[in-house]
Amino acid sequence: MKAISCVCSGSERSREGLQQVQACCELVSIEEAEALVVLGGDGFLLESIHAHFERRIPFFGMNRGTIGFLMNEFRPDGLVRRVSDARREQIAPLRMTTTDIHGQVREALAFNEVALVRASGQAANVSISVDGKVRMETLIADGIMVATPAGSTAYNLSVNGPVLPLGSNVLAMTPISPFRPRRWHGALLPRLAEIELKNLDAQKRPVGASADGKEVLDIVSVVVRADESLAATVLFDREHSLEERIFREQFTV
Fold it and tell me: How many other CB atoms sit within 10 Å of the CB of residue 228?
């Protein structure tokens, strides 16, 4: 792999990083690239994947943001070789299909998580169905999310959801500040399950739904299912793979 392109988030650190990469590597346009190097944080990597994953080229992130869980260490020297030798991880997105109070249907993709969150001062009342069967008639909470293994260490982890190994073939369903049932901590669901979340009181208790931060308001229902036809390839240094990071996160106290 010799032809690489590079994009940056626009922050001062990422712009400085782009200058260093340009000084070390001969870059090509995204249209000519065999791989795309992304400079920024996890959020910008997700933005870049959403913008360019249909080109079917792999993404190699280098951290010029804050946490950078999905990013490799920033080292411009030997970058082309690092990209060529990197370990490949396939990350399939979730497809979110929403219906709002006006009957409008929208779709969006999420490589991290789909979240349903209250949009007023009142808690949301939500029913949960899996593969056509109602599993919880009423969840009263600030919201609920469905996370992929790659996204399990993001928003999902911050609300005490489980960390999922990449090869686990499951999704994490995690409540956000549940009020009833108070002790429900969520569920692990088959990767190919079809999940439907219904707002039981859309007029009085409005909710919004988001796919990797892309939000739709005034939701009546959300259907979530994996879309393996659109998997993105993310590259990681072999000594610091995403799978290893997930393992380490589970044993960090």
Answer: 11
42, 100, 212, 218: which one is catalytic? 42
42 noted as active-site residue: yes
Q: pLDDT of 198-250, one tens digit each? A: 999 999 999 999 999 899 999 999 999 999 888 999 999 988 767 777 777 77
Joined tokens for residue 235 = 């590259």
- The CA distance from 56 to 11, in Å, is 26
Residue 172, token pair as written in the block: 């994490």
Residue that is written with structure tokens 């392109």 in the block: 5
Helical residues (DSSP H) of 97-166, grouped into ranges: 155-158
CB distance 173 to 141 below 8 Å = no
What number does CATH give the domain 4-91+231-250? 3.40.50.10330
Rounded CA gap, 46 and 37, in Å? 13
Q: What architecture is domain 94-228? A: Sandwich (2.60)
